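Example record

One chain of 157 residues, shown exactly as stored in the release files.
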Amino acid sequence: MSRSRIIPDTHVFATLRDIIATQGAVAASFRAVGRATGLAPATLVQRYGSAAGMLRAAMIDGWDIADAAFDAIDVPLTPKGATLLLKALPATPPLSRDPDVVLRARAWRARVIKALTARLDDAEASAILFAAWQGRLQWEQVGARGFALRDAVKRLS
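Predicted structure tokens for this chain:
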């Protein structure tokens, strides 16, 4: 008789997000996640119902982690605090077309922009800084050197 493997959802979700980050969403299958976690693909089907369900659960979990990390950040309400805030934020899960995931991503974006606005006292500059920061993160994933956040904050504040 084989021993049962109990792997928590949080581990499965982190593994799935890593697969997506390194290999793309196309690689996110029951088979790939099963191989990476040691769980049988059938076990994953039982837990999540479908690959889309597994992906949705992993993305929602990722936004939960991002929200918790955001809650823990304590930086001053100054332009320098805006830079510190962005540097302290964790990587967010990949974007998805799932409506619930889109809502979570939009709410997180609004929350970050509101926090930046409290530090820069300018909603438009905060939205621009957020967009520039997101673009910087994208380019850093492929090894491109990004701009210094403090320089962007100086120009926008």
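Notes: The helical segments are 9-23, 30-37, 41-48, 51-72, 79-88, 99-120, 123-140, 149-156.
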